[in-house]
Design a protein that fits this description.
It contains five helices and two strands, in the order ββααααα. It is mainly α.
Length: about 160
């Protein structure tokens, strides 16, 4: 395939998906082409640095076909489950999974889509729990640190006043 300018970022790319931002370069007419574009997209994700993975997950290709939406969600689940729950990549993977689920919800419901949405929701709930737990741990740490600083200042003032 010839070089094509990305309509989103203007970058020159080959294939179906922009190598810089993950946007679809050529309109797709069928699920087979979307599947190839999804393979291109996830090929880019595998080789990208964490910073570029986050950008690709935020702006990347979103399929329209129900079967490819489910496949995209399952592949994103892997990123969400294997990455550090507190990283930007995991946060962007969670956002992508929410978006894929939203697109899937507006399509006619099938047994396959119902099962996929249930799995997406469980993974997102687990991610949100882990994120909330991390926030609580950080707040406790900061609170202990501030209490220690206040105690040190109090002791210093008491020592200087004597």
């Amino acid at each position: 395939m010839d070089q094509a300018a990305c309509p989103h970022c203007g970058g020159a790319s080959q294939g179906l998906v922009c190598a810089f931002c993950g946007t679809l370069l050529h309109p797709t007419q069928d699920a087979e082409t979307e599947e190839r574009a999804l393979n291109d997209f996830h090929g880019l994700l595998v080789t990208a640095t964490p910073e570029n993975q986050a950008r690709l997950l935020r702006h990347g290709f979103l399929p329209d076909s129900p079967s490819v939406l489910i496949e995209a969600g399952l592949r994103t689940l892997l990123l969400l489950r294997t990455d550090n729950a507190y990283s930007e990549v995991a946060t962007c993977a969670a956002g992508r999974l929410r978006t894929l689920g939203s697109k899937l919800r507006v399509l006619p419901e099938t047994d396959e889509s119902r099962r996929a949405l249930k799995e997406f929701d469980v993974a997102l709930r687990d991610h949100e729990r882990a994120d909330a737990k991390n926030s609580r741990e950080v707040l406790v740490f900061v609170g202990i640190f501030l209490a220690m600083v206040a105690g040190a200042i109090w002791l210093l003032v008491r020592w200087l006043v004597k």
